[in-house]
Amino acid sequence: GGLKAFYKFLAKTVRYPADARANNIQGRVYVQFIVEKDGSLSGVKVVRGPGHGLNEAAARAVKSSPKWIPGTQHGKAVRVQYTVPINFTLGAIKPTASAIVHPDNNVYESVETEPAFPGGIQEFYNFLSKTIKYPAEMREKKVQGKVYVQFVVEEDGSLSDIKAIRGPGSGSEEEAVKAIGLSPKWNPGIQNGKTVRVQYTVPVNFALADNVNSVTIKNPVVPIYVVDGVEADINTMKKIKADDIKSINVIKDKSAKALYGDRGVNGVVSITTKKQ
Fold it and tell me: pTM score, two decimals?
C-alpha cells in the first residue's frame, strides 16, 4: 500500500505512554531499521527521541509491522536501511502519536550531490587533525587503532546523531565523537533538487609512532572507477543508470596492482555499459 499505508498503520498502532502524558512530554522519535530480502524488518532501533517511554513505544510499533516489499538492486532483492520519524503530540482533546508524512526526513546513504565540508574533504581531515587530542589513557596503555564515526549531515548542514560504531576503546571513541561534534556546518546533500539528510561515516586512526603521540585522519577507501575502458570520477559513476549497465567487474589485490600499480591498492570497479 506504500508509505501512506505504513504511516496509517503506525498511527493506529502507536500508543502514547502514560509517563509521557503525565509529564507533558512531546516530540519526534526517529526509528531506524533494515528491510530484509524477504521483506521482514530487523535491527529496529531509535536513533533519536525525547525518551520517557516514547522511544520504546515507537520502536515497538515498527517491530509489529507486517512484511514490506523488499528493495531490489540489479534485479535482486537486497537489504535496505530505512528511517522513519514518528511525532508524539498532546492535543487539546487527547494525546496522539502519528507518523510524519515527509519522506525527505529519511536518512539517505547515497544522493545526487554528496554533502561536503567547506573547502572539501581534505579540509575536514585537516580540521580533525587539529582538533583531536590523543587520550591520556590510550597513551598510558599504548592503545592504537581506528575509530569509525557515523553521523548525519542535516538539511541545514549541521551534524547530528554522531556516534562511534567501532573503535579500540580507552577513550578513543569519545574523543573522535567530541571532535566531529565541533565541526562547522557542511554543505548539505541534495536529492531531486532538494536538500536532504545524509548519513556519513569517517575513519579516524589513532597511532603511536616513534614514541610520539599522533592522530592521523585516514581518507575513506576509494577504488579506481573505470567506465567503458576510461577512468571516471565518483560523480560520473553516480550519473550512470542501472538499466544502462551491461556488466560490472571488480578487480582486487594483485590483479589490480598489476594493472594500475600502487594506485590499484584499493581495487578497481570496471563497468561496461550497454551502449559500449
Answer: 0.44
